[in-house]
Design brief:
Blueprint: H1 7-14, H2 25-31, E1 41-47, H3 52-57, H4 62-71, E2 76-80, H5 89-101, E3 105-110, H6 120-140, E4 144-148, H7 158-177, E5 182-186, H8 195-205, E6 210-213, H9 223-234, E7 241-245, E8 254-259, H10 264-277, E9 283-287
Parallel strand pairs: 1-2, 2-3, 3-4, 4-5, 5-6
Antiparallel strand pairs: 1-8, 7-8, 7-9
Helix pairs in contact: 6-7, 7-8, 9-10
Length: about 290
């Protein structure tokens, strides 16, 4: 067993390395080994959007939602920003402290955005808005921001839409990388509802801070087969997490988070099959 190093010894040894060179966050992440690549892990997570009716009706606050997540014995919470009272640091840090006091991790936040804009100035505006929410996520301590590609404008082609979304997303990821925050695009809207489109956009962005949220409730019929096909490709990504709800109820939906590499696809398939047999509509999202 190696000899223990005491604080004074450590500080003395580190004294000559007080000044460190600047590090590129993207390059640094590429060199970090990923222990999750060999082992799948499952954690229960609770999504604020599951309480849509109660938030919209005004009977639930974000503080109430955190308390409900504790009652569900959730490991973490996903914050839907539509119902935040503000993005002022004082309020955001109060939520972070509340989660900490209750032993909850903040897995990420979800925002509204539409990167599928033909007008370059409008795309730039969307990027600035995403940057604003990245800053809020940084204060909140959330490592992930869920974003949306948006709807394809009338008269535009899918190829054009891919170009627009990839350009905006790449710019946003360049900013989020500086704060160590991943931007996961949801396969919920028109772009990128298809797996092939999502992976093409991801290839163009080419950033370890870009990921995919795969919502299988948007896959139509035979979601198990389509989800498995997607994960055959998505599991090649360096970091991937599955978010899957097993049921919907008045108390909200409990999301299971799976983190892993080659075993990820098998976990996803098993979740889908179990929900299909129970005649439930699974909601599965993959963060990579």
């Amino acid at each position: 067993m190696s000899k223990a190093i005491f604080r004074r010894e450590f500080l003395a040894a580190a004294g000559g390395t007080a000044v460190l060179p600047a590090v590129n966050p993207v390059a640094a992440l590429a060199k970090v080994p990923d222990p999750a690549a060999k082992q799948a892990r499952l954690f229960p997570d609770c999504c604020a959007y599951s309480y849509l009716k109660y938030f919209k009706g005004g009977s639930l606050t974000m503080e109430d939602f955190i308390a409900k997540a504790v009652a569900l014995q959730s490991h973490s919470v996903d914050i839907t920003t539509h119902w935040l009272k503000s993005t002022e640091p004082e309020y955001v840090t109060s939520l972070r402290h509340l989660a900490f006091r209750n032993g909850l991790a903040l897995s990420g936040i979800a925002i509204r955005c539409n990167m599928c804009q033909a007008d370059a100035s409008k795309r730039a505006e969307e990027v600035r808005d995403i940057q604003h929410w990245v800053d809020a996520a940084d204060v909140l301590g959330a490592p992930h921001v869920r974003v949306f590609g948006g709807e394809v404008p009338p008269g535009a082609t899918e190829k054009q839409a891919i170009d627009w979304v990839a350009a905006a997303w790449k710019s946003a990821c360049d900013y989020s990388a500086k704060k160590g925050i991943t931007l996961g695009i949801e396969t919920h809207s028109a772009i990128p509802v298809r797996a092939s489109t999502a992976l093409e956009i991801l290839r163009r962005v080419d950033s370890p801070y870009a990921g995919i949220n795969l919502d299988i409730s948007s896959l139509g019929q035979k979601p198990t087969r389509r989800c498995t096909q997607t994960y055959k490709r998505a599991s090649r990504m360096p970091r991937t997490r599955i978010f899957a709800t097993s049921s919907a109820s008045r108390s909200g939906r409990l999301i299971w988070i799976a983190s892993g590499g080659s075993r990820l696809r098998l976990v996803a398939r098993d979740i889908c099959q179990r929900n299909t047999r129970r005649k439930r509509t699974p909601r599965l999202a993959c963060r990579s």
